[in-house]
Amino acid sequence: MPKVYGFIFIAGEVEELRIASGGAYVGSGYDVLRGNPYGDTTAASGIDPGLRPSKFILHKTFSTPESYCPDQATCTDLDGSSEGHTARLQLDMVDYQTSFNGSWGAGVSLSSGSILSRFLQSFGGSLSEGYNNVQHKIEFEDEVFVDNQTTKKYAEASFNYGSQGFLSAEFTSQICELPLIYSASQYLHVIRNWGTHVIVRAQIGERRISRSVYSGQNITNFLYNSNTDCVHAEANFLAFFSANIKRSTSSTLISSIKKSVTETELRIITSGSSKNPIPLTMQFESLDHFIAKRYIRQATVDSLTHLNCSILLDPISLCKVRANFQRALLEYPLTDRARRPEPIWRNYTIVKPTAPPVKALWPQGTYSIVSPSRGCPAPAGQWGTGTRYSGLDEYGSLSSGFQTVARVDAGSGIVISFCTKTGQFSGSDGVGGSWPSGSYCFFKKGSCPSGFVLGSFYNDDNDAWTPWGMIPDGSYSHTGTQYHFCCRNDGNPAIPVALPLTPFTLLPTAEKKQCQTVQGMQSTMRHINWFGENNYNNFARGIYVESSGKRWTMYFCTYEVSGFSRASSAAAVCEKPKKKIALSSDQFSGDDLLKNQLHRAIPGADFNFEKCDL
Questions:
Q1: What transmembrane ranges does the database entry give (predicted)?
Q2: Do residues 371 and 419 touch, judged by C-beta distance below 8 A?
Q3: pTM here?
Q4: CA separation for the pair 469, 376 (Å, rounded)
Q5: Which residues, 6+ apart, have CB-to-CB distance to 147 below 8 Å?
Q6: Which whole-number Å values give the CA distances from 310 to 140, 180, 237, 295, 440, in the listed order?
Q7: Are 362 and 423 in contact (CB under 8 A)?
Q8: Which H, E and C letters describe 169-227, residue by residue?
Q9: CA separation for the pair 225, 207 (Å, rounded)
């Protein structure tokens, strides 16, 4: 096979890589948190952002300037024939991550390094742009994918690190600058630049993905009609937990979906070519595995002695450096806010009920309400939409059926969707007058209408996601959420008021703790209990939030046209979501915190840091 050259843009510079056999990749670094074998877009894969081809962690030499295979590797040309038509149903980000984890293969080490590899791969790809793009498509745009993948493999390379693997001079000089006393910033700086792993084997070629895109609601209706054990129905509503469908993701089911459900879009995603192949599969060793005496060759020892760098020459010092890298690898996902993928709830309407004629219009002013599962109320197109994710710590809890208020993210948090009215409605729908007297609240957008008082609450939410779209007034960051709301308490909630006859959500006052009665509507109260590190009496103002010490409760009233009801119990779904233990919990600190997050990713795994008191 002739030698092929290609150009890759890495960190702003163009590097000439001899990539015909994968020799440019083996022995180099890879970052599994930022890596994504499918690239960083949803349309054209591009280069895997986790690759660090210029970071030679292991020493590589070439027999001749034209050689494309390192002397320390075994390279084999393959025939380039097409392989497989692998079909995958992707209902959530667990499915998506599983699909590209297959490209990474299993760690080849049986040491504690393999536990670190498995732990880091549980966060795999979550810091890549491509991962976040797909997450938005699945979780916020309600898409479901069926991917058909074909590959052509042109070559493979394996690094003979067992007998010829030695640390490169560039990497050892980087280590020489590190302190023996652990410094998270310095060790994490090396990991971010060089990677979490070393690629020891790679197959290269090209990949083509034919992605059929479906509406989540259409898939849910199909699954309900064909597999009622996994989809729960009550009245005119469907609900299912995505993890419940995994037992059914067979080729037969995918074939049935393609025959019975109309796709909304077909996307073709290609990456690599015969002239510019990309890694299709890789095997790794975790970075700490190579911080050992057997990977330091004599020439390096002589060089380190000349440079007066003793950190890699003394066994105890070397052991401490390896232990420091292990600690940094465990801290890396937590420090850079990586997230493991979770199953999701999906809730839909089977048949939209015919409601009585509207007898009231939406009041004047600007405001936000929690979006019903069917979407914003009529008139369509006159409401701004947005979402906010908030984590739920281990002491928090949700009332039964809370998924009718917000999407429950596998018990680890909630995604609240908002409908925001920002101006006057146009057309025949018109706009109503003032809000009626009563006892209720809604989220603030702009100024509170006459008769309402301003309130707010703050949640020190360490797991919050960046808000998307148009959301209520407040303050939003990765460390906390502050909502503003407008409340009134100048009427008896038992006395009916006139509002539009369409599903919506209001907030009861904490004092009355009773849903405002609305003519022609039936209401259901749900609630969420939060727990904070501080006394929330200092963080809640107004008459909406009920607080007691470090606990406070938010209430929601969902309204349906009389005669219709939503699915009311999460317990009726096939499988309840698993409880999440918050990484920020003050139950854990130091080594216990790191081991706690390790056990969450790999139940039953035991990992001990290097003991260096030799």
A1: none
A2: yes
A3: 0.60
A4: 14
A5: 86, 87, 88, 90, 99, 209, 210, 211, 212
A6: 53, 11, 68, 15, 70
A7: no
A8: HHHHHHHHCCCCCCCHHHHHHHHHHHCCEEEEEEEEEEEEEEEEEEEHHHHHHHHHHHC
A9: 35
Task: Encode pLDDT of 216-274 as tens digits.
Answer: 888 887 777 765 567 766 656 777 767 766 544 567 778 778 877 888 888 888 888 88
Structure tokens, 5: 């050259």
**For the ranges 27-31, 274-278, 529-533, the one whose mean pLDDT is highest:** 27-31
Dihedral over alpha carbons 467, 470, 475, 481 (to 10 degrees): -50
Token pair belonging to 356: 């009585």
Q: Which of 139, 156, 138 is nearest to 147 (CA)?
A: 138
Written as one letter, the residue type at 77 is D
Instruction: Indicate the SS3 state at residue 530.
Output: strand
The dihedral through the CA atoms of 329, 334, 337, 339 has a sign that is: positive
The set of residues, in sequence order, having a beta carbon less than 8 Å from that of 330 and lying 6+ positions away, is: 116, 119, 594, 597, 598
- 158: nearest Cα among 210, 200, 215: 200
Question: Where exactly are the structural domains of the chain?
Answer: 5-335, 356-563
Q: What are the φ and ψ backbone dihedral angles of 462, each rounded to 5 degrees?
A: -75, -10
Q: What is the pLDDT of residues 541-568, one digit of tens each?
A: 655 666 555 667 788 888 887 654 333 3
For the chain, counts of helices (H) and of strands (E): 11, 28
- C-alpha distances out from residue 5 to 24, 67, 130, Å: 11, 11, 26
